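Exercise: predict the fold of this chain.
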Amino acid sequence: MSGDALLLALFMVAVVNVSRYVSTLRTLLAIMRECDPLLYQQVDGRGFFSSQGNVSKQIRLFHYIRSQQYHKHHDPVFMAKCIKVRRLFILASTFLMVFFIAIFVVAYLGM
């Protein structure tokens, strides 16, 4: 097995997982707009994916999901989507770290 094939396979898996994460995050923001408009405004829902988005507000959503504050929410659909976003973030982050580690392994071991 060549190092290039390994890197390509890991890269494709990482891309698929990141795209699943972003898609689920967009869905979460759409659900949030309907069920919790105040939180939607606090995390800059409208400008979340724009280049003019407020990063400190986007980080607020990250901390909201990381600390699992959504367990106190009244909407079960919103809670389920937050759980899915959290799991996909962990999965995508892990695959990206594995991919970058594999780049160094392949580069230094000369696979």
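Check your answer against the key: Residues 21 and 37 are 22 Å apart (CA to CA).
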